[in-house]
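Dear all,

This email documents one entry for the complex benchmark we are building for the journal club exercise. For each entry we list the sequence lines for every component of the assembly. Then comes the predicted three-dimensional structure of the complex as a token string, followed by one or two observations. Please use this as the template for your own entries, and keep the labels exactly as they appear.
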Amino acid sequence: MAREKVLLPPFQALVDAHWRDVARLARALAGPVDGDDVAQRAWEKAFTAYPGLTSAKNLRSWLLTITAHCATDIHRARKPQRPLDDAPPIAVDGPEAADWPDPDLWQAVNALPERQRFAVTLKYVGDLDHHGVAAALDTTPAASRRLVSDALATLRTKLGVEDD
Amino acid sequence: MTDLESRLTRLTTPGLKPPTFPDADVAYTLHDTPIGTLLLAVAQGRVVASSFGDEETMTTRLARAVSPRVLRQPAALDDVRRQLDEYLAGRRHEFDLEVDLALATPFQRIVLSDLPVHTSYGHTTTYGRLAGEIHKPRAARAVGTALGANPVCVVLPCHRVIGSSGALTGYAGGLDAKRFLLNLESKS
């Protein structure tokens, strides 16, 4: 049986609707220096893959997943230069970071283990549900829920905020 | 949502940069002209649209008919814009552009593709005469419908086709636009 042709919207509609979300997420995941690079790479990958998509559903989630993968790639590529695995992956004290809001929160998020940091960022900055977070992290929604709740618990302790 | 969660959703930074792209399969721009805003699009160097239709409708049609990789890339339309501006200023009588009728139906292709042959600058013809030219003498009405949905307006001069009574009849860009184009051609 011939597969029904997928009716994809014009790519420009995706760019207009989601470029800010992708840019925001990329910076949150990869920091002020690499973030813009990650966003640009994510869009290039999406542009290449777009005509081959077999579904026009959840395009925003698809874009944010690509962004997360690009952030992981750049994070892994940078890793050998950093002796300590648990060092904050993002410099939040450089000049680029000067006008970033909520530095305490950023510092605390950046100190989380990588999977937790990605999960909590995808969930709240990316505004993805646990299915979306799970897809981006190649895991299950239940695992995503655990990663996010562990991350929130650590952040509460670090920032000294009450469980409200 | 807790306070902490809402703080996380606001984790953002100023000066976000929009992405840049290689050449799209379909590049388009919106071009303001004396006869209204035209959506101009090219695919592989050929003009696929010069239309009074709105951006969302036209780009969706292009995504389906040509490729979903449709992007607003004005630079790819520089030559088309220049030729249109010259034409609309009365300084150009023919377009040196290749056209792709991807948005047209098979019948529209028959009607539209030879329009520059069956019409000439500064002269009008009628729907009936054009129907005769394409060997469908009884299809004047269908010819009118095909011209009315011309996806490559101005470049394919459907404005030169009028009713046998001499009435302008209709135009996608409105009768004022049709009148403007016919006046322009009769003066130049």
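Observations: Helices of chain B lie at 3-9, 55-65, 78-88, 106-113, 115-118, 127-133, 140-148, 175-187. The CA atoms of residues 8 and 112 of chain B lie 57 Å apart.
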